[in-house]
Amino acid sequence: MSSQEELDILEAYEDYTEAPREVVYLHLNKSTYIIGETLGFKAYVLDKNDKKPSVITSNLYVTLEDATQNIIKQKLIEVQDGVASNTFEIDSLFSKGNYRIKAYTNWMNNFNEHNYFTAPIIIKDQIVAKPVVNAIESSIDAQFLPESGHVLHGVENTIGVVIKDKKGRGIPYAKGEVIDKNGTIITAFKTNLLGIGRFAMVADANQNYRVRLDGYDTVMALNQDLNIQNKGIILSVKRLRNKFFVSAITNASTLETIKDRRYSLVLHNGNTADLMDIYFNDQPIVTKIIELDSDPGIHILTLFNENNQPLAERLIFNYQGLSTIQSDTETKLTKSRDSIAIRLKFKAIDSSMSHHLSASILPKETKSYQSAHSIISYNYLQPYVKGHIQNAKYYFTDIDERKKFELDNLLITQGWSSYDWDMIFKGAPELSYNFEKGIIIKANYSANNLNDKGRPNNIMYHFNDEGFLVAEANVDQKSYVIKRLFPEENYTIKLSEITSKNVLRPAQLYLQFFPRKIPKLRMSTPSVSDLITAPSSSEDLENMNSYSNVMIEPLDGEQQLGEVIVKASSSLKRRERQSKLGNQKFSKIRVVSEADENSYVTLLNYLKFHAWNLRRSTSGPNTTSTGVAGVATAELITDPFLAETVIAGVNYYLNDILVIDFSRIEELFLSNVDYIEINRFGLGDGMRSPAGVIKIYTKYSSPFRTSGKTSKPYAFPLTFSKQKTYYAPKYRYNDDDFYKHYGVIDWKPNLSVDPSGIATIKIAKPKVPITLFIEGIANDGAFVFEERTFDLN
Q1: Could you tell me if 497 and 457 are in contact, meaning their C-beta atoms sit under 8 angstroms apart?
Q2: Host H or E run for residue 595
């Protein structure tokens, strides 16, 4: 570095960006819902810098709020390897109107950048078509935004243009002229599909500029938007293939006062930063050539004066190295009587590497999927800009030179980035909000929890029939701490205190849970009135205006969603029964299933797989003597596994009677067994079972036996939402306009490819053409985003 000032800028930046950031994105099954439908989502939590799935955070908060930011529903979701999926029922808690879905982690509250997810959704109770209005909106919002924040007198400036209607949607292909005070046309412009464009002009601070738009009677004053300055410096960027020519430009009246002063141009992307010195000598333009190679995404150029004050800023985007994957044109369809399997080949996905795909399957003519973002745009654009980007996914669909130019136009209109240099110079953010991995329980102990030696007793805990664990006391903090718990709805944690005599008694403790409630998102979010997306064509613009959110009269033949009947699976019933049987016990409960009976046949075969860790056991609280049967009895046992466990000190009970004659155990078929308790340490059985207890209950005995109460259950104030199966709603008609525009065919949140790269999507056979909206991540950082349409008839 050539000066202390340079060190100040880069050191401040490095301190500010040192803490890792995450970005969360939700792929929604659609964006407009009818009351009675289900909102399905797939969550992708990615590292902001390398765009790979985050392995740090496990807790994701997802909320649904109304137009006044009242939370209607909220959930805590467990994230594994950066992904999760879940649903919300759009039920009677909702009425028709505008809502917003948000997703964030606790860690995100430490930063001011837009790393969380937010998107508007629309809920309708009925749909009515209105006549299409082809007239141009009479009220418009025209914005003219200089390339680097202001316009400089006497030099060529680039001006970004945004033309929107009164609903905030870009007016496609709007034409305009810039005229001076004499009515002379200075330049002209035309917006693109999204109402964005640019023009260049040599500005004169003594002129009054106006803009005249085709189709409008009014002429708009321009000078206030342009903010023409007599002195100063601007930034201008030109792109040639993968090179960016960045020019710092001043005018003649400024040049004489800034000669030989050092200015600094900082290039950063939220992770790394480079600094370049700029000196104006005899020329008013200083140009730097920047090659970004394969470092894709937003890069931010900020110009500083010698006092480290930011003067101008420009955002650029590098497409080079952007890794995206789409399916091959080859598609195989397999039809049966009532279903169809769509096999998409993703030749570029390596199935041996972690990959996650989600797909929304909707009618081809759907009007209910109007998401502004894709997984690509939300990770590469949204976190780096301040404002809302209309139809951001457009810039990553069918990428060509025109799309690259249009994205550059967009970035001209964005102004300063989401990185506030005033905040950066104040130092690293105060990290007041922790990374979260499940639920943490802290319990301070008292004198009642001490043994006769003055030491705190250990605590044994379990929940969700997952066996038990021991929590040792932290003497320095005088507490027990239990970490990384992932309880689901209605779970309790059962705590027992292990006394010095290895007797269990209910633990009487005051528990503190972290977190105990869903935290609020600290950052403000855009209004729910923001447009979900821009139309992709003028025809779409007309169609979007043909539906109304105002109160309407009920329609004859109005569509109603059919009833969905959900039947609990046998495995779910078995798990629920295991949980009930395990209440107040520290045993692993295993209810025998029909599949177990067919696989293992005999009880001993089953135990060899599920009780292997009791053999020769020397761990646990009770390790002082051999079992009741002893070595002599074990010599009479013909099965080696059974003999070894008996020698180790494992006791067997059959219908709560201690087994002496082991021939009954050896001859027992699994089809006669109801459930089994496997207690590895023999807790609750005193000193009789030093290496564990196995209790076997046959189908001819009472299935609900309990021992004395040895634990105390505690309820979790906050639990994780269960991952629920998505059920497509049923409609009275599956081929009318209502269904084509707002119906749902299916939602597949957890797709993967087989070793040959095939992703199979099986759906009920539709009566209408369909579109697949596919998103995901694969190959350690490559994004999947595409829309595929099929006529299956």
Answers
A1: yes
A2: helix 594-600
